[in-house]
UniProtKB/TrEMBL annotation:
Source organism: Zapornia atra
Pfam families tied to this protein: Cadherin (PF00028)
Cellular component aspect of the GO annotation: catenin complex
Name of the molecule in the record: FAT4 protein
Membrane-spanning intervals of the chain: 185-208
Gene3D superfamilies, per database record: Cadherins (2.60.40.60)
Domain Cadherin positions: 1-77
Primary residence: membrane
GO terms under biological process: cell migration; homophilic cell adhesion via plasma membrane adhesion molecules
Keyword tags: Calcium, Membrane, Repeat, Transmembrane, Transmembrane helix
Statement: the UniProt record of this protein carries the keyword Nucleotide-binding: no
Amino acid sequence: DPDSGDNGLLLYSLVSDQPNEFDIDENTGQIFTVSVAGKAGTFYLEVQAADQGTRQLTARTTVNVTVDSSSSNNIVVMELNQKINVVERNIAGVKRVLEDKLAWNVYIVEVYSAGSERQARSSTDVTYMKIIAFDEANQEVPAEDVKRKLWEQKNNIEMELEKIFLTSVTAVIEEAPADSASPELIAAIVLGVLLACILVAFLVYVLFAVKRERYKYGITEGFDNPGATDKNGSLKSLEKLEHADN
């Protein structure tokens, strides 16, 4: 609407009896998902735009939204200490901050809150966002890389979000684990441990065999064992004494 003043101010709304899975920003007309978890299919939303002139004019159109079940493993959940309706109104700013600090394209998959929808939208000061990041080649960024970078930029993200929400903002992000060892390194470590165990077992076997041979030698020959008996059961030490007496 090219008019100025109230005649040029457009407000958007979803016509009544629309699915509860969606909401709309009345100032920009941007449509948001409220809760589409576990749902798939096409939703038909009737959107109305109305100017604010004395003789209010309106226009309507149908928006078809197709929800596809995602099999991505790279979705990351962020938690903001803000009401869900406040987050939805400022979702464009949140997206801009995330893209600026992460240096990736960010797609906000879902915005939702715990508890019943009516209660959550009015009183619950916790909102969750599922996001996915894409690199310059439009490839999904691994979830662990996204978490790690979110954690590194946590303070900067919170500072920028405070400018948008005009209040203190806390962004809770699952801490990224330390870099894990590569499969090749793990295999080398396991192989080294196995070889060490085999070597120790071999040394124990050799030591036991040597001791057994020495013990056997001492029994049959009597060396280093003056109390050993001969085949007839007599003591070799007594034989030595008898020879000495003779």
